[in-house]
Design a protein that fits this description.
Distance between the termini: 103 Å
Mean pLDDT: 87
Strand content: 35-45%
Structural class: mainly beta
Helix content: under 10%
Length: 254
């Protein structure tokens, strides 16, 4: 028997006469092509270079050839470097360019240092070696209030513009020496910092100079040189001495 129009339920069986619900049509998914993050291109090695090992008496030892690169170097390279525990297993990598080597620190523990030739700019956070001593430089800028105008408490600054800290084994900063004058000197016998027991430090070894053009580190003709830790991706020219762990190398063309 047909049900009258408008009935919601069947008069015979009681079933619902409402039309079956239709599944909703899903909204279209909006897609977009992600914007790639900017990347810094790394240099690709071109040419050959050689690292010549310099012994403690100044004579030449063995050598390591670098063909293009990047080539990793560290304690895992093998004998005799596997006995130098100031080297990380993968310490740094070298890439040959026309002017010299690009050196990238991999491990970040002890870094790679280059021998200073004359004077170079010294930046906040730079580390340098004088004899067996490790020194760390920091800028001391003029105090500035917080965003809400609050000024931080502290002892009056008599005019210090920089600070040098002595780094002990384990990377711990100990003594700190503020810099106030235009020149700050380091030496074995003379200077604002002296190391009378370090025979590798010259009497007047190096100095930090601050003027209107910036802050600079200058070797003063020391016997064993002043070494500055390389910043990431530094290009080091041929003929330069570099220190990785306890290994001293000269960068040569091959």
């Amino acid at each position: 028997m047909a049900n009258p129009a408008g009935f919601r339920f069947c008069g015979g069986c009681g079933s619902s006469l409402a039309p079956a619900p239709q599944a909703p049509t899903p909204a279209p998914v909006q897609t977009s092509t992600p914007t790639p993050l900017p990347t810094t291109p790394r240099p690709v090695g071109a040419g050959k270079a050689r690292l010549t090992l310099i012994r403690i008496d100044g004579s030449e030892g063995g050598s390591i050839d670098i063909n293009g690169g990047p080539m990793e170097f560290g304690r895992s390279y093998g004998s005799p470097f596997d006995a130098d525990f100031y080297l990380s297993p993968q310490h740094c990598k070298f890439t040959v360019l026309g002017e010299g080597l690009v050196i990238d620190d991999i491990a970040g523990a002890n870094g790679v240092y280059r021998k200073l030739n004359g004077r170079i700019p010294l930046e906040h956070g730079d580390t340098f070696r004088v004899g067996q001593e490790l020194l760390y430089y920091e800028d001391l800028p003029e105090p500035a209030p917080l965003a809400d105008g609050t000024e931080r408490m502290g002892s009056p600054n008599p005019g210090y513009w920089g600070r040098v800290s002595l780094i002990l084994e384990g990377g711990i900063a100990s003594e700190a020496f503020p810099i106030e004058a235009d020149e700050f000197t380091v030496g074995r016998e003379n200077g604002d910092i002296t190391f009378p027991l370090d025979g590798y430090v010259s009497s007047s070894h190096c100095r930090i100079i601050g003027d209107d053009t910036g802050v600079f580190l200058e070797d003063r003709g020391s016997s064993n040189g002043t070494y500055v830790r390389l910043r990431p991706g530094s290009l080091v020219p041929y003929g330069t001495l570099i220190l990785a762990g306890q290994q001293l190398f000269r960068i040569d063309r091959a």
